[in-house]
Amino acid sequence: MEDRKKRILRAIIDDYVLTATPVGSRTIARKYLSNLSSATIRNEMSDLEELGYLSQPHISAGRVPSSKAYRLYVDMLLEEGIQQTAQDEELKAAFQTRISHLEDVVRSAAQALAQVTGYASFVLMPRQESLRIANLQLVPVSKALALLVIVTDGGIIRDTMVQVSERLDADALYAISKMLSEQFTGRTLREVQTALRQFAGQSPGDPQVLQGIMDLSTQMDSQNAVDQLTVCGTHNILGFPEYQEADKARQLLYALDNKEALMNLVRDTRGEELLVHIGPENGIEEMRGCSVAVAEYRLGRGQRGTIGLIGPTRMPYQSIFSTLRMASQAMNDILSN
Amino acid sequence: MEDRKKRILRAIIDDYVLTATPVGSRTIARKYLSNLSSATIRNEMSDLEELGYLSQPHISAGRVPSSKAYRLYVDMLLEEGIQQTAQDEELKAAFQTRISHLEDVVRSAAQALAQVTGYASFVLMPRQESLRIANLQLVPVSKALALLVIVTDGGIIRDTMVQVSERLDADALYAISKMLSEQFTGRTLREVQTALRQFAGQSPGDPQVLQGIMDLSTQMDSQNAVDQLTVCGTHNILGFPEYQEADKARQLLYALDNKEALMNLVRDTRGEELLVHIGPENGIEEMRGCSVAVAEYRLGRGQRGTIGLIGPTRMPYQSIFSTLRMASQAMNDILSN
DNA sequence: TGTTAGCACTCTCGACCGTTGAGTGCTAAC
DNA sequence: GTTAGCACTCAACGGTCGAGAGTGCTAACA
């Protein structure tokens, strides 16, 4: 495609992102490319429409960029490299957290991201399969219940209630904990599941405790995996002109509650530092009008999670990218300690 | 007020709850009180308007009940006693949870409530001050970090990261845990704060651990108290005709995010089993169009939390009440074990 | 004296215009 | 290849109008 067409397309997208209304040739001629007349731009726009980059809501309206146009635009941006725009101090400040659970750090990052950008945001915890058990301890809760706390090497903590024999007092539980820790340290949660089957045969501990661990490790990859995705700032969606109708907004909000679908979408970044699913590319029917930007963060020993933003296709991708990159880097820094 | 006026008012409210449109005299005459003519009802409605129970959006429209009317209506209902309507099996089923954290039980109750009723729901955990420590344990996480787990007598579990001296190994931490548990068992979290000051003087443990406990117990009554309130099903709001404008809905959703305000509202039930804040009574500006129904649940040893529903003033109070009471009872049953 | 039928009146709502303005496509001139 | 000009299209806005729902008032009725 000729350079001029690209420049015009870019101007159209920039303007549409700003105004959310169809862009006319005169607007482009006046505000963006004053060396060209509106007639020339009209001709080019007509071409661009034929190429599938633009469409008109009705015959005498301005043009609206298509997903294909955004895709080109985003690819252009990424090729040029992400420019570090002067970044909000606000966001940086939000990352100066006091020590706390890894989960809390990650969640508050997402919250900050949503607040600063005005879009909806999400974080996905590092994949659980790769997590290795660092420590494991039973804390007595009541006569027949204990809390099984599993610390993984990334500092991620999971816990669950397990039923224990009433005979076991605190010291006995500690002894069991110690033994289990020795047994399982360094193994992944998935390995533990299989290991436990053999282990259960020798039965040196309370069988109910073993069952509990088994339950937990099964839980951790499937059902509970849902907890691994946190979505924030969904209310921001109601502020966008494209979601003024309550019905449409509701559909989207419910779709964002469907963690499984969203998780599949944002789980991996295909090896990229940054990935954008534009419009229908995201594959979720209710989100066909939305783009999803996904960035990766790292957690020391090769564990990776993702963090990102969700907004209407009409997003200021440039600044979104730089914000996301900043966020991802800040998280890497914090979490490497 | 005469009985007939009450009956008419009740019919108006019933109809308005159903249709969300102003109710005319003819509708009432036909659908509810066919022994009276519309003219008679018109006269009564005129009186009711003068008494402040009804209002007209414009001169030739039907009537809409005022907050005062709902208040009368609700008081009448409560006086008559809450009727156990045939209750959704769905809700009951949702309460058959497997053993898990108390927090999870309570939260999933709220979720079920929101889903079954189609309104927004909330739960508030039992007040923290009254909770007594049952056990307390440090779980090593990394060289200089440990997870402090506090189990309270209601089975509520709180944890926080604390910094510990690198010298301390797992056994040492367990020893400290044991000692701290002995020291603090049976005390309330608030007492612990003051006790710790003295205790710190004798310093038999790691001072950083003590600081951690102190931090946690302070945290637990103030800042973190916000976590004690969970709100679910807020998206349902977008389905109500009174919140079709995205702007209005957004305002309300943000107001519901403001946990402090909401918490103050739902924290106590003034000794009642069931309490309703109708419209402006709730005192939150953005929620002037909403009613908040609050029910109490108990947790064994005198600890009380609340659970409730939030919806437009125009709510089917009768069924709301019976659902809420059922939920509260189900929770009492589960949590007493 | 309370209830009701009837009637004039009010007001919203939706349909049905013109008018306006933004924007287009096409043509012809530069 | 670019641009000016012109005819054309269409959404949006505003005004008018009739239908329908609902009221208040009055007078008749039981």
Protein model, in words:
Two copies of one chain form a homodimer. The first copy, chain A, is α+β, with helices and mostly antiparallel strands and 337 residues long. Chain A folds into three domains: 63 residues, Orthogonal Bundle (Arc Repressor Mutant, subunit A), CATH 1.10.10.10; 149 residues, Beta-Lactamase; 92 residues, Enolase-like, domain 1. The longest helix of chain A is centred in the last third of the chain and has 20 residues. The model of chain A has no long low-confidence stretch (mean pLDDT 86). The interface between A and B is large, with 37 and 37 residues. The structure holds a DNA duplex (30 and 30 nucleotides).
Shape of chain A: elongated
Low-confidence stretches of chain A: none
Q: What is the helix tally of chain A? A: 12
Number of domains of chain A: 3
Helix and strand succession of chain A? Answer: HHHEEHHHEEEEHHHEHHEEEH
Q: Remind me, CATH topology of the largest domain in chain A?
A: Beta-Lactamase
Tell me the quaternary state: homodimer
Kindly provide the radius of gyration of chain A, computed on alpha-carbon positions and rounded to a whole number of angstroms: 25 Å
Chain pair forming the biggest interface? A-B, 37 and 37 residues
Q: List the strand order in the largest sheet of chain A.
A: 7-3-10-9-8
Provide mean pLDDT of chain A, rounded.
86
Based on the coordinates given, report the CATH architecture of the largest domain in chain A. Answer: 2-Layer Sandwich
In helices, the fraction of residues of chain A equals: 40-55%
Question: How many β-strands of chain A, per DSSP?
Answer: 10
- Cα distance, first to last residue of chain A? 47 Å
Quickly give the structural class of chain A: alpha+beta
- Strand proportion of chain A, as a percent range, falls in 15-25%
Largest sheet of chain A: 5 strands, antiparallel
